Amino acid sequence: MNALPATMKAAVQQQAGAPLHLVDLPLPVPGPGRVLVRVAAAGLNPLDTKIRAGRAAHARHPLPAVLGIDLAGTVVALGPDVAGWSIGDEVYGMTGGVGGVQGSLAEYAAVDARLLARKPAGFSMREAAALPLGFITAYEGLVDRARVHAGQRVLVHGGAGGVGHLAVQLALAHGAQVFATGAAESREAIEGYGATAIDYRVTPVADYVQAHTGGEGFDIIYDTVGGATLDASFEAVRPYHGHVVSALGWGTHALAPLSFRAATYSGVFTLRPLLTGEGRAHHGGILREATRLADEGKLRIRLDPREFPLAGVEQAYRLIEEGAANGKVVVTVAS
Predict the structure, then answer these.
(1) Nearest 5°: CA angle at 188, between 222 and 153?
(2) Residue 36: phi, psi to the nearest 5?
(3) Cis status of the peptide bond prior to 64, with omega within 30 of 0
(4) Could you tell me which residue ranges the Enoyl reductase (ER) domain spans (predicted)?
(5) Per-residue model confidence as pLDDT tens digits over 299-329
(6) Which of 77, 97, 103, 133 is the most buried (most CB within 10 A)?
(7) Exposed, middle or buried, 136 (CB in 10 Å: 0-12/13-18/19+)?
(8) If we measure between CA atoms, which residue out of 57, 65, 61 comes closest to residue 12?
């Protein structure tokens, strides 16, 4: 192993709305319970664009800062009190970019070892970097909150999206019958993941509830869209035993339709372990499950084919901001 450098390149956001600039920063030193990762790839999320624009107070990431929530790379140094990891391990995780913690848009990151899992053997570094936030969000909703299991009918709103396409595959892996909403142009992608596609633009809620559940309603509905889509979920859930989960339940909603069905609701806030320190080991455990599913051929990632180096991070962000991405956008930090 070559000697580590004293400095690293990082993409730094100086103020909200300003371009990111490559600068030299001191190499991070891994403290107790942390490992130093040489970052190979950094996954970008819509949340990153909101932080960058100054519209994500809930992420508590003061500027100037290094952005980037997801990473994949190689362990190059161990801090004190780290067990279970060795130099040379290929890892991935949702490790920073919020709460004042350095993000993944840098050549190295000192990260809490509890947040990491071993990279799926069949995934490239770019594919692994595209996985953490989306899969953790899907898992916390479907498994931790809704307890998805075989025989259930699950509806995923936004089934071709970053969280939605992973939620579809996760529900199928648990033996559920899966349906997913999307526009007509998403039909092929949704069906490719194994779900029954529903074009929400042309099919009213009552019609698809009748067509796919005999009017009974879905056992689990995972909303990844928010707004009126969450309200529609309250109309489509199964009485008594139905459960609605939302990763975007931040608006004002009338709960009467849900209450009249005697159904239940859960919210998902995936950033909480990063912001509070609580539950970080669970995030690592969730990603170990993602690795298992990927290694068994039950999990695929929707990755935008365009590649961007660290110096091209501005173009990568614009692709997301303009709605032109065709899957998860990943920045290649090191080969």
Answers:
(1) 30
(2) -95, 125
(3) yes
(4) 17-331
(5) 999 999 999 999 999 999 999 999 899 999 9
(6) 97
(7) buried
(8) 65
Distance CA 99, CA 194 (A): 36
Q: Locate 40 and state its tokens.
A: 């190979």
Q: What is the DSSP string of 6-50?
A: SEEEEEEE-STTPPEEEEEEEPP---TTEEEEEEEEEEE-HHHHH
**Cβ-based burial of 254 (10 A; exposed 0-12, middle 13-18, buried ≥19):** exposed
Which residue reads 């779900």 in tokens? 195
Residue 166 and residue 295: Cα distance in Å, rounded?
Answer: 15
Give me the domains of the chain, ranges plus CATH numbers.
7-131+279-332 (3.90.180.10), 134-267 (3.40.50.720)
- The set of long-range contacts for 266-270, using a CB threshold of 8 Å and a minimum separation of 24, is 266/141, 266/145, 266/146, 268/137, 268/140, 268/141, 268/145, 270/94, 270/133, 270/136, 270/137, 270/140
pLDDT band at 250 (very low <50, low <70, confident <90, very high): confident
Average pLDDT over residues 106-129: 98
pLDDT tens digits for range 17-71: 899 999 999 999 999 999 999 999 999 999 999 999 989 899 999 999 999 999 9
Q: Tokens standing for 36?
A: 């130093």
Q: Which residue matches tokens 């916390």?
A: 140
Largest CA distance in the chain: 65
Proportion of the chain in helix, strand, coil states, percent, rounded to 5:
30, 25, 40
SS3 260: helix
Please report where in the chains the tokens 């993944």 appear, as a residue.
104
pLDDT digits (tens, 9 = 90+) for 138-166: 999 999 999 999 999 999 999 999 999 99
Angle (nearest 5°) at CA 298 between 295 and 304: 90
Q: What do you get for the CA distance between the two ends of the chain, in Å?
A: 16
- pLDDT exceeds cutoff 60 at 1: no
